[in-house]
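Customer escalation, tier 2.

The customer says the design service returned an amino acid string that "doesn't look like it belongs to this structure." They asked us to rerun it and document both sides in this ticket. The original structure tokens are below, unchanged.
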């Protein structure tokens, strides 16, 4: 069944605290930060099992672990002065996050050792201020890579 299902929630009522609230799509191994977005759409035939994790960020991230590199999202998209890259890794290791223009030129990169689980990296405001148009955001490890498009206004 390829029916598209939408789940929505009012994240303005979650309160002003430091707890993390994540919706975890088990089949797609996709984490959704329920404090930053208020809607998730999925295809019924692809996603049938979900979990919700709530608590201290470190505890939530320790429980939301995929079995492969998953590039969740880059948001907001389009972006103007800030963007967040969300990804999960199945094990500890080096991860590269790169911003590449449509001509294949590297505009920004960072590399770091990340623990297993869910991570978010902020694209620096200084890069966002001087880069415009369609870009490719790439997340890669030693064995896997994934790309998404980002429009910078």
């Amino acid at each position: 069944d390829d029916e598209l299902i939408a789940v929505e929630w009012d994240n303005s009522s979650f309160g002003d605290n430091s707890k993390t609230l994540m919706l975890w799509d088990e089949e797609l191994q996709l984490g959704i930060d329920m404090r930053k977005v208020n809607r998730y759409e999925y295809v019924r035939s692809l996603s049938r099992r979900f979990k919700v994790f709530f608590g201290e960020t470190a505890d939530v991230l320790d429980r939301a672990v995929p079995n492969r590199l998953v590039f969740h999202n880059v948001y907001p998209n389009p972006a103007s002065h800030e963007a967040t890259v969300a990804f999960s890794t199945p094990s500890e290791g080096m991860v590269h996050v790169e911003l590449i223009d449509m001509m294949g030129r590297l505009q920004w990169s960072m590399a770091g050792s990340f623990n297993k689980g869910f991570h978010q990296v902020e694209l620096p405001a200084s890069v966002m201020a001087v880069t415009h148009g369609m870009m490719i955001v790439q997340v890669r490890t030693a064995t896997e890579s994934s790309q998404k498009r980002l429009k910078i206004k």
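Tier 2 assessment: The sequence is consistent with the input. The longest helix spans residues 57-63. The longest strand covers residues 93-101. Sent an explanation to the customer and offered a walkthrough call.
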